[in-house]
Amino acid sequence: MRGYHKRPEETAQALKDGWLHTGDVGVLDEDGYLRIVDRMKDMIIRGGENIYPQEIEHAVHAHPAVLEAAVVGRPHPVMGEEPVAFVVLKEGALRDEDELVAFLTQRIAKFKLPTSVTFIDEVPKNPLGKFDKPRLRATVASTSASATGPDEEAP
């Protein structure tokens, strides 16, 4: 890669000392294979703990009523950030934040549990069809002063 077209600042951040810094976060498994677990810019830091939204998303997707889910960090005055989930349910499924959180409690650590679940009709996507997490982060940042309840509609 030579750089981003007409974006010198982003090129300078990505290309350092002959290396391409992708922003991906990976782990090596016991067999030495690299597994990409998330993106640095998506990582949530809550009270000094690193939380990978993709881990929470996988747990939410395991629920039989869930069609899509996206998790982002919401600013928090004491903890730094807190995870919040945007969930699209399958047709006919009932909105039940308490039941979903109880389901997640069996699958992920307590500090990773979303502090709120917002049920939406569709997760916003970028032109490539990927979840538009910057848009979701902007939404929660603008509403961080007020709690987002499960019945509120978001983007």
CATH T-level fold name of the domain at 44-142 = GMP Synthetase, Chain A, domain 3
> What's the CATH H-level homologous superfamily of the domain at 44-142?
ANL, C-terminal domain
| SS field, number of helical segments | 4
Rg to the nearest angstrom? 17 Å
What is the 3D shape?
globular
Low-confidence stretches: 147-154
How are the strands of the largest sheet arranged? 7-8-9
Taken in chain order, the helices and strands follow as: HEEEEEEHEEHEH
What is the percentage of strand-forming residues?
25-35%
Number of strands: 9
Percent of residues in helices comes to 10-25%
Q: What is the terminal-to-terminal distance?
A: 34 Å
Could you give a short account of the major beta sheet?
3 strands, mixed
**CATH level 1 name of the domain at 44-142:** Alpha Beta
Class computed from helices, strands and strand pairing: alpha+beta
Rounded mean pLDDT is 87
Query: Which CATH architecture of the domain at 44-142 is right?
Result: 2-Layer Sandwich
Keywords: Fatty acid metabolism, Ligase, Lipid metabolism
InterPro entries: AMP-bd_C, AMP-bd_C_sf, ANL_N_sf
Domain AMP-binding enzyme C-terminal: 55-130
Protein name: AMP-binding enzyme C-terminal domain-containing protein
